[in-house]
Automatic annotation (TrEMBL):
<keyword id="KW-0276">Fatty acid metabolism</keyword>
<keyword id="KW-0963">Cytoplasm</keyword>
<dbReference type="GO" id="GO:0005737">
    <property type="term" value="C:cytoplasm"/>
</dbReference>
<dbReference type="GO" id="GO:0016020">
    <property type="term" value="C:membrane"/>
</dbReference>
<keyword id="KW-0966">Cell projection</keyword>
<protein>
    <recommendedName>
        <fullName>Acyl-coenzyme A thioesterase THEM4</fullName>
        <ecNumber>3.1.2.2</ecNumber>
    </recommendedName>
</protein>
<feature type="domain" description="Thioesterase">
    <location>
        <begin position="75"/>
        <end position="139"/>
    </location>
</feature>
<comment type="similarity">
    <text>Belongs to the THEM4/THEM5 thioesterase family.</text>
</comment>
<keyword id="KW-0809">Transit peptide</keyword>
<keyword id="KW-0472">Membrane</keyword>
<dbReference type="GO" id="GO:0016787">
    <property type="term" value="F:hydrolase activity"/>
</dbReference>
<keyword id="KW-0053">Apoptosis</keyword>
<dbReference type="InterPro" id="IPR052365">
    <property type="entry name" value="THEM4/THEM5_acyl-CoA_thioest"/>
</dbReference>
<dbReference type="InterPro" id="IPR006683">
    <property type="entry name" value="Thioestr_dom"/>
</dbReference>
<dbReference type="GO" id="GO:0006631">
    <property type="term" value="P:fatty acid metabolic process"/>
</dbReference>
<feature type="region of interest" description="Disordered">
    <location>
        <begin position="1"/>
        <end position="26"/>
    </location>
</feature>
<keyword id="KW-0378">Hydrolase</keyword>
Amino acid sequence: MSGRTTALAPPDGAEPPVRHPDAPAPGEVIGSHYEHCFGCGGGVPHGLHLEARAGEGVSVTAEFRVKEAHQGAPGLAHGGVLATALDETLGSLGWLLRVIAVTGRLETDYVQPVPVGTVLHLDAAVHAVHGRKIYATATGRIGGPEGPVAVRASAVFIEVKIDHFIENGRPAEIQAALADPDQVKVARAFEVNP
Ligand SMILES: CCCCCCCCCC(=O)SCCNC(=O)CCNC(=O)[C@H](O)C(C)(C)COP(=O)(O)OP(=O)(O)OC[C@H]1O[C@@H](n2cnc3c(N)ncnc32)[C@H](O)[C@@H]1OP(=O)(O)O
């Protein structure tokens, strides 16, 4: 046993999330955090190309169109791809808190199959923060933002420093990212926290 507290319910003493004063305005598109991200990057041909927008409070919305490359069963989205869409949407919540955070735990419920061609309408929100732990949920609906739920997830994200990526990433990609002014701009956006 590691002794980690991996429950998805916030513990006693957890606080409500606080929207950062420099968070993107409600409705503003949250740009990709990394061009080669499978979830949001424009440089990945078969990626999800998920585009998130800031919502009210500490929430986001996003859309993901399921393509042929995302199939698991014939004509249906792969469950792992749908989990990625939920994970990526949840990950973009870091822009509202202005913290860098990675997924620690992600629990996914698959409620309805999602056919190729479907636009999955996603929303996610942070419910509580406890130390470095960020408790959040996400929902994916089909047919529109108010349509029936197809997938949902509960997650714990863990706040990390930029060093997490520098120390753990493959050197070639890290060096390329550090040499890319746009990437450095993304990293700097998270450096100043009140
Ligand atoms: C620039 C923006 C970048 C945004 C990227 C978003 C992309 C989309 C989201 C992703 O897919 S991220 C990629 C998938 N996730 C990972 O690769 C994370 C891999 N895991 C790790 O690197 C480490 O396990 C982790 C950083 C999560 C934690 O290690 P640490 O050594 O920093 O934490 P530590 O073990 O000290 O635990 C700190 C707290 O977090 C809790 N914790 C740690 N791992 C947990 C876990 N897995 N689930 C729940 N809670 C967890 C732990 O219990 C503890 O709680 P307490 O403070 O209450 O004691």
